[in-house]
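Encode chain A's predicted structure.
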Amino acid sequence: MPTASGSAVIVAVHATAGALACWALGWTLWDGLAEPGIALAFGVLMAVGELVGRGPDPATGAGREGAPLGVAGALAYALLGEAGGRPTTHGVPQTVAVVLAAGLVGIVPHIARGRGPALDPLARRVLTVGFAATCFQPLYNTGTLGTWVASGPVYPLFLIGLLALTALCDAVLAAALASARTGWPYGPLLRDALRALPGIGSAICATGVVISLATAVAGLWALPVFCLPLLLTQFAFRRFAAVRATYRQTIASLARSTEIAGYTPHGHARRVAALSRAVGRELGLNAPDLDVLEHAALMHDIGQLSLLDPVPDGATAPLPPAEQRRIALLGGAVVRQTGVPAEVAVIVERQADPYRDQPVTARIVRTVNAYDDLSGESAGGALRALERLRLATAQDHDPGVVEALARVLAGGGRAV
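Encoded structure for chain A:
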C-alpha cells in the first residue's frame, strides 16, 4: 500500500494528467476535429499498440513500458507537421485528445480480465505526449521551427533531441509513480528507468521520428510500413520475457529440492529470496543485480544436498564457520552445473566468508538467511533474531545490511 506521501504523488500526477485531458477534450469538442482521417489512422495505430503490447518490460520486469508501438505512434502524432506534403493543423489539444482516446481503448482488456485499469501508464502518456506536442506544434505551425532548422539533417536531429528530453521526463514520472506505489527508494528506480532508455526506449523514439518524417512525405501509407520493425521487436521482447519467466520458474523448482528432501523447512528458500530482494532494493541495487541476488538466495542452501545427515531444521547459521563454508562451497559447485550466471554461484560460495571479504549481495544472503533461521514464527522470535544479528555486526554481519533488513521489516517486509 502506498504511504501518505506516495499517495500524494500519485494523486498529483493523475490530477495533472486529468486536468490536461479535460482541457484537451473540451478544446477539441469546441473547435471540431481537424484532419479526421489522419487522427483516426494514428488513433487506430495507438490503440492497436496498446492492445497487443500491454505487459511488463522484459528488461526490468517492472512494466515500465508495455506498449512500445502505441508510444511510438503517439510521439509521431505529436511531432507531425505535414502529411503527404500538406501541412497539418491538429495542434496540442487534439494530439492529447487522440492519445487519451486510444489509451482508454487500451484499458478495456484490463477491465474485461477483472483487473483494475492501468491508470499510471495512461497518465504518463498524456503528460509526456502533451509535453512533446507543446514543444513542437506551436513552433512548427507558426513557422518558427522552419526559421531555426530550415532544412537538412538539423530537423531530424531536433526531433531526436526533443524525443530524448521527452523520454527523460517519462523516466522521471515512471520512477516517481513506482516509488510512490511500492515505497522503494526513488534513486535506484530512476537509475533503472534511465538504463532502459538506450534499449527499447531508443527504438521507440527512433520509430516515432521515422513515422513522423515518412508520413510528411508519403502520407498515411508510411504508418504500416515503418511500424512493422517495432512490432516485430515487440513480439521478440515478449518471447524473451516468456523465456525469462520459465528460467525463473526452473530456478525456483530447483531451489525446492532441499525442501522436498527434508533438508530445509518449507518455504525457507522462497522467504529468503523475497526478503533478500527487498533488502537489496533498500540498499539501492539495480534491477540486474536484484535478479542475481534473488536467484542466489533461492539456491543458497542447495549445498546441503551433499550432506549425509540433514542439519537440524536446515539452520546453517548456528553451525561452526568452517562447516558453513564447506556447505557454501559445495552449493556453489552444484550451482555452477545448472547453467545459471557465474555471479550466482559466487554469491552462494561466498555467503559464509567473513562479511568484510564478501560482495554486498553475499552479505545480504548471509544476513537474511540467518534472520530466517533464527526468527521462527512469532513476532517475539523475529525481534530476538534481529537483536542477535545486531549484536553480531562486529564480526559476522554487515551493520548496513542489518539496518536495511530492519527497515524492510518495519515497513512490512515489502519483497517484490
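The chain has 17 helices and two strands.
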